[in-house]
Design a protein that fits this description.
Blueprint: H1 2-19, H2 30-35, H3 39-42, H4 60-71, H5 80-84, H6 89-100
Length: 103
């Protein structure tokens, strides 16, 4: 009996807490999903906290060209070439468009 009452109280508490929080709808795009791996080095939403360059707000053309150059080994890199090799042209375009929209 006590355990049942405790569970009911807990559920009511959680439900009332959740009801007070604002709900924000976010459209999750493929570009956003693909860009998650970039956050480890380039920072959340492409805003680097350190020595790695920030990529948010750069033009989609700049980001696309850089990723393609890394992928094709025509631009020197230590890590980026290995990351970029895993992306197709259309995935690179989605990533570039995602970061270009961030400010």
């Amino acid at each position: 009996m006590k355990q049942s009452l405790l569970k009911q109280t807990l559920l009511i508490s959680i439900a009332s807490f959740m009801g007070t929080q604002p709900v924000i709808a976010v459209e999750i795009t493929q570009g956003m999903m693909l860009s998650n791996s970039c956050s480890a080095c380039h920072g959340t939403d492409g805003k680097s906290p350190g020595a790695i360059p920030s990529i948010n707000g750069k033009s989609a053309k700049f980001i696309s060209q850089a990723l393609i150059s890394y992928r094709d080994s025509t631009r020197p890199s230590t890590v980026m070439g290995r990351h970029a090799k895993g992306y197709s042209n259309s995935e690179i375009k989605m990533i570039a468009e995602y970061f270009s929209r961030l400010k």
